[in-house]
Specification:
By secondary structure, the chain is α+β, with helices and mostly antiparallel strands. It contains 14 helices and 13 strands. Strands 3, 4, 5, 9, 10, 11, 12 and 13 form an 8-stranded mixed beta sheet that branches. Strands 6-7-8 form a 3-stranded antiparallel beta sheet, with no helix packed on it. The two termini are 47 Å apart.
């Protein structure tokens, strides 16, 4: 349900600070690290401020903002896609953080009241002037007692502690933002390359002759010049993707959309080397994605296979093969899966590449759950070098598999360089 806007919004053309001063303050705020590393927050805040300055407050409704600022369809469901509400809520928190910084008490204030998308502008509260000297002469000031300094120091320490505790809840979010920042800050659209099964010929969905399409699928199999009919195309493995990879794509696409980042989707079989050089790349899948196997081969952790056993290989410790899955295991008896997350600059393409792939689909889903939760990333960087944000990253994830479902992701190993 869309929050209601105040019935009588203050008109900045008639009252309040000068419009030029408001714009100057807006730019000052958006240049602060609280805003400049994001696209969503500056875009929404700038739009509502400009609209208010120009007297267009009647259009500052949730649905209108979703369409104009975030590119949603006019009939989109604001209940299932609360991007405007969530972004506005985060903006309010960051504005509060901004004005808590020392020295900003004298700046013009821009605020966004809860339940409204119409910003309010106010001049800083000036110190009250001293009263006229009509009272008897003031007595000579006495030296301040030492305990007053102790009280003042304690007050400063308490204020600092409150500020730390107030800011602390946003630390996990910052770690996840920093992981994705090289991708989101690129001026080029992101290429999402999703894995596909190897070419399976024309195997039908059913192994029996009861499949009504089987006869049509087999036509022309012995003739290399026979065209691929729609019947045969439907059953080609290279035209299909695994459901866990689709789920992973949905999470990543939602993250990119929430940050206003454009992306393109390609199947692994239709992705070219030239595509990989157009911008940052996100590779979904491991053994079903040839580009993952190629680009990860030179890194410390990569994917390896020996007949029916698949594992994450450690090139610094080739004897280590405990991160493995035997594909001859009945799938309902699989108890653990592993996944590899990589964020690395790829020298041959000159682009940042992110890989999200599991030994099976359970691991892939656990990996994207890890990349969607701020708390997991915050835990992962506890032992990371201080400058990890500028480094390449590889994370190995483990997940328990229970009755055909993956559990929460857990960090097994990590590498920064």
């Amino acid at each position: 349900m869309e929050p209601e806007s105040p019935g009588t919004a203050q008109n900045p053309r008639r009252q309040g600070p000068d419009r030029a001063a408001v714009r100057e303050q807006l730019e000052r705020m958006l240049a602060d690290p609280l805003f400049k590393h994001s696209r969503r927050y500056p875009n929404l805040l700038r739009y509502v401020v400009e609209q208010t300055l120009e007297g267009g407050t009647n259009d500052l409704k949730e649905r209108t903002l979703g369409v104009v600022v975030f590119g949603r369809e006019p009939a989109y469901d604001t209940n299932t896609d609360p991007i405007v509400r969530s972004t506005a809520g985060e903006i309010r928190k960051r504005i509060a953080q901004y004005y808590q910084e020392p020295g900003r008490e004298h700046e013009l204030r821009i605020s966004l009241s809860p339940g409204s998308y119409i910003p309010e502008f106010a001049m800083p509260v000036a110190a009250a002037p001293a009263p006229a000297a009509q009272a008897p002469p003031a007595p000579v000031a006495r030296p301040r007692k030492p305990y007053l300094w102790i009280v003042a120091a304690a007050a400063v320490a308490l204020a600092f502690l409150v500020a730390v505790l107030w800011i602390r809840p946003w630390a996990p979010r910052a770690a996840l933002d920093d992981f994705w920042r090289p991708v989101l800050d690129s001026p080029n659209p992101v290429l999402i390359c999703i894995g596909q099964r190897r070419f399976l010929g024309t195997l039908p969905e059913s192994p029996t002759d009861d499949c009504p399409d089987l006869e049509n699928v087999r036509k022309g199999l012995g003739d290399p010049n026979s065209p691929i009919t729609l019947f045969r195309l439907y059953y080609l493995g290279s035209q299909n993707v695994a459901l866990p990879d689709v789920v992973t794509f949905g999470h990543i696409a939602g993250l990119l959309q929430a940050n206003g980042k454009a992306y393109r989707l390609r199947g692994e079989s239709s992705t070219t080397y030239a595509d990989l050089r157009d911008g940052p790349v996100i590779l979904i899948g491991a053994f079903n994605n040839d580009w993952t196997m190629r680009l990860m081969g030179a890194l410390r952790f990569n994917f390896a296979r020996d007949h029916g056993v698949f594992w994450i290989q450690d090139t610094q410790n080739p004897q280590r093969k405990n991160l493995a899955v035997d594909y001859s295991t009945p799938y309902m008896k699989l108890t653990e899966d592993y996944a590899l997350i990589s964020r690395a600059f790829e020298p041959t393409t000159g682009r940042m590449v992110v890989v999200v792939g599991g030994l099976t689909g359970y691991g892939t889903i656990a990996a994207v759950e890890f990349l969607s939760s701020p708390s997991y990333m915050e835990a992962a960087i506890q032992k990371a070098p201080r400058d990890w944000r500028r480094k390449n990253i590889q994370l190995i994830i483990s997940t328990k598999v229970i009755n055909g479902g993956s559990g929460p992701p857990r960090i097994v190993d990590e590498y920064f360089w």
